[in-house]
Prior knowledge:
With 493 residues, the chain is of the alpha+beta class. It has helices at 11-17, 71-81, 99-102, 121-132, 152-166, 213-217, 249-268, 277-286, 305-329, 361-365, 393-396, 435-441, 444-464, 473-482, and strands spanning 26-29, 57-67, 87-90, 107-109, 135-137, 146-150, 169-171, 176-182, 185-193, 196-207, 221-224, 235-242, 293-298, 337-341, 351-353, 373-377, 409-412, 424-426. 32% of the residues lie in helices and 20% in strands. The termini are far apart.
Amino acid sequence: MNTRPGKKSTRRDFIESGLSLAGASIIGQGCGRPAGLVGRQDGPGPGQLAVPASKVEILAEADLVVCGGGCSGVTAAVAAARRGMRVILIERWPTVGGMATNALVHCWHRSDREKLVIYGLVEEYAQRAEKEGWIVKDPGYPRVHETNWFDPEGMRIVWQRVLKEAGVRVFGYTAAGEPVVEDGRIRAVLVETKRGRRAIAGKIFVDATGDGDLAAKTGAAFDFGRPADGLVQGMTLIFQLRGIDPSAGERRHKAVAGVMDRMRKMRDQGRFPQFNEGTMEHYLNWADNESLWNMLPEAGNPLDEEELTRLTTEAREKLVAYLAVWRKEVPGFEQAAIRQTAFALGVRESRRIRGRKTLTREMVLGAAKQSDAIGHGVWMIDIHDPKGTGYTTYLDRAGRKMLKAGTSYHIPLGMCLNSRVPNLAVVGRCASSTHEAHSSVRVQTHCMVMGQGIGTAAAMALSAGQDLARVDVPALQKALRADGVYLEDVPVA
Ligand SMILES: Cc1cc2nc3c(=O)[nH]c(=O)nc-3n(C[C@H](O)[C@H](O)[C@H](O)COP(=O)(O)OP(=O)(O)OC[C@H]3O[C@@H](n4cnc5c(N)ncnc54)[C@H](O)[C@@H]3O)c2cc1C
């Protein structure tokens, strides 16, 4: 929790930090005032400082400014730039790709278990990566949801190339800060540079930060966590080992069940860290030196930087403790060592910015069709225990959590549009959904569907001199189909 010694938390503290109040998910209303309103504040209260209003140089200006360079932000930027827009992408980390590259999340889901239903820019990225040997098809392709496994380093290069070719100006190492809001519209976003504070100005802004940072700072309403207790899905540190001896074969398989039992016992006695049982057993049996282990659970508040740092540090220590046992007890692991841990702890869920439409569990599982569809989604209700046990509803693959094979739901434009700020769109895992629907629509291919839809819609809105919400939806759908997006069964509005 984000409570400092001697400071009593108020409801506002909880909302601003995204933490839970007992028995309720948090409905937030922004994160303080946008920068455009700074001059109108009263004097500072206890525990606050007055920051004098100042004039800030405009560092760069574009038609579209995308904040956050994960898979959704890259795709929004490329889609708009290919339609002739001047686009800026602001990314706080050195490279683009977000969770896909910097947290080593390396699997795509494009199939309804009978056929692929996600194409467009996702297909283009897959083809480019395939040509370079950076992506492989799942052995069950296309009969399983998981269609492709990729090399995060390769995908980093695919995305940096498509951005360059499309002419997107990319500001890496740059976090988007406070928005400057004038007459209810975002005029610019402030960035702290080595040379001082600057502004990046634009006509339309896309929040692709995963956490909804920009939207929340404009005062947009958001939800955080599950209804019962306000907790968000568990996180995972993905890692890779070296030194596993592939010749251990049968001896290794025979030992695993016993090692699992001993680890369980030690954990229950408090002498061993938490682990994701099903997944750990799988990796101990089958992982090789190329495997990216997606199994090390953590839980907490991804909007609290100090807590996130503690969890990331703790996750690395857990890995050291796992490895000490595996080296002793698992044949073939005697020389195993850490090759890499992900640059960032993998965050699955934080703010979900309320949009004009909210995707629900019923829409997902009922394969609902929407008149403002921008693409299809196929993934199941996949919730990783918010308490950090590592359990995920994916593991039981219960029928009640999956769509019927051969069906898919529509991802609506409305879940990315904001009713409060007309020149703001939200794409990716922070777009508008309930906690349960989010667990489906958060997967990368679905986030990229949103990116392509919004990038195209923004270009059309800018060309027509309109707001995003006034875009001609049938014309948008026609443009998306022309760009290779799979879009079927759209009901007439
Ligand atoms: C451990 C784990 C396993 C997963 N497994 C799968 C899987 O198998 N398949 C799948 O498809 N999905 C999986 N997911 C989900 C998926 O990876 C994410 O939901 C998806 O990548 C979200 O994409 P995004 O573009 O919305 O956000 P992100 O990938 O989170 O990207 C957001 C980007 O914004 C940047 N950013 C944040 N704040 C700012 C700021 N203020 N200014 C500038 N930049 C900012 C970040 O640095 C980041 O680059 C998994 C997630 C995790 C954590």
